[in-house]
Design goal:
Helix content is 23%, strand content 31%. The protein is α+β, with helices and mostly antiparallel strands. The protein has three domains: 73 residues, Orthogonal Bundle (434 Repressor (Amino-terminal Domain)); 102 residues, Tick-borne Encephalitis virus Glycoprotein, domain 1 (Sandwich); 91 residues. Strand 17 and strand 18 form a beta hairpin.
């Protein structure tokens, strides 16, 4: 054994002939997070409390001594430093200093342990309470677990509306996500029954989030989707299919979905992506490309947009009239461009909480510029 926490977990799993997929299903922890534990990639978790909690849960599942695994994890975080000269030359502690030097730190340690136990119990006592408040400061434990009814545990591509509609090619067991008036919606292709043209229509079953509701649709159908958790209805049309992919059209109005002789699929003409408008005609345009698995939370003009885990390769694009607030678990794992200017958010593994604002130029009051600052 190599001696790290991840090595112990991986070797224990392999010795029992358990696959990552099987372990994910039986522990109810996503496969990405299990691999992160085995690879000692603790930067995927938003804090030490999360890492320790999942190490304990995974260790118990594999029959390991969880205390030993957590000890190895914490040992890997320690950085050895040479003692400074002041420490080497400091006078010996007198008896009168014992209480100040020993008793007080011991009391502080007990208080910290009590706080940690309280936090641990709040996460692992079986409670499933979650908060949807935009002011929430921490990620919920259940957001990392599988089978969430708000965000799917599969790869999704972010798509944008153009002139009130958008098209997408969705692969089986993958999905797309899009925003309607700052409400994030996901469609995951769960089942696809492909039929050649002379044998009938292809059919598909999509999983709709939030809510994890099943939507069944046939090729050529145009259905309206209206849910209480979305600000307005939208229309979904299945325009075509292959054995593993479905072509869909999503529109905010039924007008762009009606087919004509010149436009048999009912698509609107392709135009430049529509933008938000404001009196000054100045908007904040942000593009974020994620090079590592990451935990994020975004607010656009004060309204929640994206919250949860993003896999490496994900791209987010937002436009705002006034501000974009971002919380990112791994600042070094994102390439950020704002109004065509590249920004460095932080180092690998660093958690940041920043806001982009538009402000009037102090020299030319008729012009605006953007600023990026910590919160």
């Amino acid at each position: 054994m190599k001696g790290t926490a991840g090595d112990l977990l991986r070797e224990a799993r392999e010795s029992k002939n358990i696959s990552v997929t099987q372990a994910a299903n039986e522990t109810n922890i996503t496969g990405r997070h299990l691999r992160a534990l085995e690879e000692n990639n603790f930067g995927m978790f938003p804090g030490e409390t999360y890492a320790v909690g999942f190490l304990r849960k995974y260790s118990d599942y594999l029959g390991l001594d969880s205390s030993r695994v957590i000890q190895l994890y914490k040992g890997s975080l320690l950085v050895e430093k040479e003692p400074p000269i002041a420490e080497l030359t400091r006078p010996t502690i007198t008896r009168g200093d014992h209480f100040r030097k020993l008793a007080l730190p011991a009391i502080l340690v007990l208080l910290v342990l009590g706080l940690v136990l309280t936090i641990y119990n709040s996460f692992f006592s079986g409670s499933t309470d979650e908060t949807d408040s935009p002011d929430a400061k921490n990620y919920s434990y259940n957001e990392i677990l599988k089978k969430s009814d708000r965000v799917p545990d599969v790869e999704t591509d972010n798509i944008h509306f153009r002139s009130g509609y958008t098209t997408a090619i969705v692969t089986r067991d993958k999905g797309v996500n899009f925003s309607i008036e700052n409400s994030e919606i996901y469609l995951v292709l769960k089942e696809l029954n492909y039929m050649v043209a002379d044998r009938g229509k292809s059919t598909a079953t999509f999983e709709y989030y939030p809510g994890k509701k099943l939507i069944r649709i046939s090729e050529g159908d145009n259905i309206q989707i209206s849910e209480a958790n979305q600000p307005r209805a939208f229309y979904l049309k299945m325009a075509g299919a292959t054995p593993n992919n479905a072509k869909i059209i999503i529109a905010l109005s039924n007008e762009v979905m009606e087919p004509t002789e010149d436009n048999p699929e009912g698509q609107a003409p392709v135009e430049d992506e529509s933008r938000v408008t404001n009196p000054s005609n100045f908007i904040i345009v942000m593009n974020a490309e994620f090079t590592s698995n990451n935990f994020v939370e975004f607010y656009v003009d004060g309204k929640p947009r994206k919250k949860g885990e993003l896999p490496a390769g994900s791209i987010l694009r937002y436009e705002a009239n006034e501000s974009i607030q971002m919380k990112i678990g791994d600042a070094g794992g994102v390439k950020l461009t704002i109004n065509n200017e590249t920004f460095t958010l932080g180092k690998k593994g660093q958690t940041i909480n920043k806001i982009v604002r538009k402000v009037k130029d102090p020299i030319e009051q008729t012009r605006y510029k953007i600023i990026l600052k910590d919160l």
